[in-house]
Design a protein that fits this description.
The chain has 18 helices and two strands. It is mainly alpha-helical and 398 residues long. The radius of gyration is 20 Å and the shape is globular. The N and C termini lie far apart (42 Å).
Length: 398
């Protein structure tokens, strides 16, 4: 019973904390910073109970919560977490703390709104990973757009409005197709619960249409080639902490969606169209990797490399093999930590020089040797050097 409402606490503690911090006002910036960090740290420590309370012999959903929400339409506030969800929730709560520390003293405009946006974003993202009702998942999926849109659009760079609108429209248009697919599945089976959707018998044609509706929604989030163009713009214009959350957490929602929706609900269509997903992913690995090679902007370099690395996740997921799927999950966790670290490392010099041009950073190793060592360490992890986390996921996928 101690863990009966654990997932709800992890969702609503940051959301309510963010809402209360909004009430502090712009005059109390330092208080807002400390309060937000306290909420994030408490949420992270609370999330560790997922590890201690998890039954590793049980592959099903644990920490289950079930409450009626809109019973007339079969919509429930149902939460649960398995091994995949728990790993991503822990990644979310950890990166939430690191992002707030990384933003400390960097942003001085509307600080209370800035840190509140991060906390609310963290809460709804945990909701995405914990929801076992498809409509609840969709509500959280859409809700995360608002704080992310504000973080890019208010505190971003010179072209922040363009980047924020592009991010919003790409994600929103993709998710509309997912909503249409969910409504069709409800009409067919009379339930929005994921377990019921998994058991639904669909014809080959129905599976194909639903597969592509889900695929487009999650492909934008990963992002897969050729719907990846919003990501470099969003990363370049977002503040450092915004880039950290975007790379470490937001991109994982796409990979999670493929594993939670596409493959279990439309398994036959998944097998039939796996070649398309794998082909697009391999194009992303090679083509986007080549695009990353010619970048002169430090943030764009890391952003394009993120697209190439996330392509390994989709290759692994659609390989339909146990090592491939395990590699995809490991790659998501590894990329979450490594990409967050790289954006924080880039942010260290960008927040001091306000230049992202690689050419301006010549000789940095002489002035900041420890920084250069840390940068090299995370770059090697990004490359996938044996002995680093980047190697394990990519090796399993390959």
């Amino acid at each position: 019973m101690a863990n009966a409402h654990l997932l709800s606490v992890l969702i609503w503690l940051p959301v309510i904390g963010g809402a209360l911090i909004l009430g502090l006002g712009s005059a109390r910036a330092e208080a807002a910073r400390w309060a937000s960090l306290a909420v994030a740290v408490v949420t992270f420590l609370w999330s560790l109970r997922l590890l201690t309370g998890f039954d590793y012999s049980n592959p099903g959903m644990q920490f289950v919560e079930q409450h009626a929400w809109i019973p007339a339409w079969g919509i429930h506030y149902n939460l649960g977490a398995d091994g995949i969800a728990i790993a991503l929730i822990l990644l979310t709560t950890l990166v939430g703390v690191l992002a707030l520390i990384g933003a400390w003293g960097v942003v001085n405009k509307r600080v209370h709104q800035y840190v509140a946006s991060f906390l609310i974003l963290q809460g709804v993202t945990v909701g995405i990973f914990a929801a076992t009702d498809a409509i609840l998942f969709y509500v959280f999926f859409e809700a995360m757009l608002v704080p992310m849109f504000l973080i890019i659009g208010v505190w971003g760079g010179p072209r922040r409005i363009y980047a924020a609108m592009k991010f919003f429209l790409y994600t929103f248009l993709g998710s509309v197709l997912m909503l249409v697919a969910l409504i069709y599945l409800y009409v067919k089976g009379g339930s929005f619960q994921l377990a019921d959707l998994y058991a639904l018998r669909l014809s080959a044609q129905e599976q194909t249409w639903i597969f592509f509706a889900f695929m487009i929604a999650f492909a934008v989030k990963v992002p897969m080639f050729p719907v990846h163009t919003w990501l470099p713009d969003a990363h370049v214009e977002a503040p450092t902490a915004g880039s950290v959350i975007l790379a470490a957490i937001a991109l994982k929602i796409g990979g999670y969606g493929f594993l939670r929706f596409n493959l279990p609900i439309t398994p036959d269509a998944g097998h039939e169209w796996a070649w398309l997903v794998i082909a697009l992913s391999l194009v992303a690995v090679v083509y986007v990797g080549l695009v990353a090679l010619v970048q002169e902007d430090m943030k764009k370099l890391v952003a394009y490399s993120s697209v190439a690395h996330m392509a390994f996740v989709t290759v692994g997921a659609f390989s339909m093999t146990a090592p491939g799927i395990e590699g995809a999950i490991f790659q998501m966790l590894s990329h979450g930590i490594v990409s967050a670290a790289l954006f924080l490392v880039v942010g260290v010099v960008y927040d001091r020089t306000h230049s992202r041009d690689i050419a301006t950073y010549g000789g940095l190793v002489h002035r900041m040797p420890v920084y250069a060592l840390v940068f090299m360490l995370f770059m090697l992890a990004s490359v996938g050097l044996p002995g680093t986390s980047g190697f394990v996921g990519e090796f399993l996928v390959l």
